[in-house]
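Newbie here. two chains, one complex. Structure please?
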Amino acid sequence: MLSWLAIIAPAWIAGSLLALLSAPLGCLVLWRRMAFFADALAHGTLLGVGLAVWWQLPSGIGIALVSVLVVFSLVVIDDERLPMDAVLAVVAVTLLCFGLLTLTQLTDQQANVLGFLFGNLLERDWADLPMIAAAVLIGLIALRYIWSAQVKLATHEALARIQGINPAAQRLFFMGVLAGFCAIALQAVGSLLISGMLILPALTARLLANSPNRMVVVALVLAQIGVTVGVWSSVWLDIQTGLSIVLVLAVIFFMTLIITKLTTKLTASRS
Amino acid sequence: MTSLVSPAPITDPAATIRSTNATTAPPLLSLDQVSYAIGPQTLVSKVSFAIAAGETISLIGPNGAGKSTLVKLILGLLSPTSGKIVPEQPLRLGYVPQRFSVSPILPLRVQDLLAQADTRLLDQAQQDFIYDKLKLSHLLLRQLRHLSGGETQRVLLARALLERPNLLILDEPMQGLDPDSEAWLYQFIDELPDFLHCAMLVVSHDLHWVMKGSRRVICLNKHICCVGQPSELAVSAEFQKLFGHNYEQPYVHKPHHCEHHAPSELL
């Protein structure tokens, strides 16, 4: 156990730090109905990394470029005949294809593709932690800054605007935070599973919470459980960390769903 | 239902003083030839009027007359395609929307919504007064989605009043209310205490309430059909042509009575 702890500790800490940001961010993603957008951004990170490796730039720059591309393409595609969720799904798969194409054809990263898709948190070491901690801290400060305006917009856009909140600026700022999160979450859970880590704790928390703040707290707890159990089981079972984290979160979600449904049925039949 | 017939605000001295003040009060907001169109379709056409500080205006008109659009223009949620809306004083807008629903993914209790109001302009006793008058204390922990129409309206009205607006806009505040809560709500806004007194623009279908007070009435059908005090309007030929003599009945608009000054594309 102890010998394992030394190997696992950096990954575990990195995951826990990420979960501090993913939980509140996931709640906002749900409240603002941005789940598909988050998915498109997450898939785009693969292309971002591919381009960065190809052009020998830091991966952050590649991911930022692709995030700008995603927002820009949405503005261009905007057509009232096409539902936004479908457009975002199309953007996501297109980015995934180009990402895979770039990584496998234009770089020598073929061996790491699985890691980019499903995460390789266990490759993190102590030296990576300060960077991750700093990024998470910046993300949390940014979230704190937009939080109340975002909740007001999610409640009622007109009432929020009358209070002087600018929806377009808020949306753009939020997209920026989301893109930043995707960039740091890529190494933990991988491009395909980022949205799972983002949304699952918040979705489960919705079943258990009756106020916005409580939903965030429950999501924080669940995300920490998911990361902890996920990292340990990925070592024991020798599977991708992203895979095991998201699987743990999914199991918690479905169990919570079934239990809450059963208890509401039971209380209804008793009364 | 008794409150609907009993105290007519015209006999209420406070209301009389307020209405006389209103005519001399400085303007709060003026609209100058405001139009709003989407493509070829004109929704609001060349509307001009001013709202004085503390004045209550009722806005009536048929469905599709542009009442809600005009409200959104005044609130700044839409920009006029021509004309301008000039705030003559710093505005603190209060708004009770016609429809309100919170997405089920956001678990929001009544107290969470009320906490979103900026209450800096009211002291604790004044806030308590609003909670008390609107009977909110037993609702605070309820989910907003589970409230009845009347309860939702009370909560929204409280949210607006807690910011101590100087212009309160109610967009068909009585939609979906039973007659008792409707009468209660009209009486409540007629009898706001001094610290909450503000200019009001009330979009209403209820001609009884509109006609019994001394508030200025604006009848909108894309353009302004007629404006005036109820007493003046009721005797004017134009008004009788629009509403008939039996104006205490629910308002039924007769478009062929309202052709004057209408831009040709509307007809």
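Moderator note: The CA atoms of residues 126 and 195 of chain B lie 8 Å apart. The two ends of chain B are 40 Å apart (CA to CA). Thread marked as resolved.
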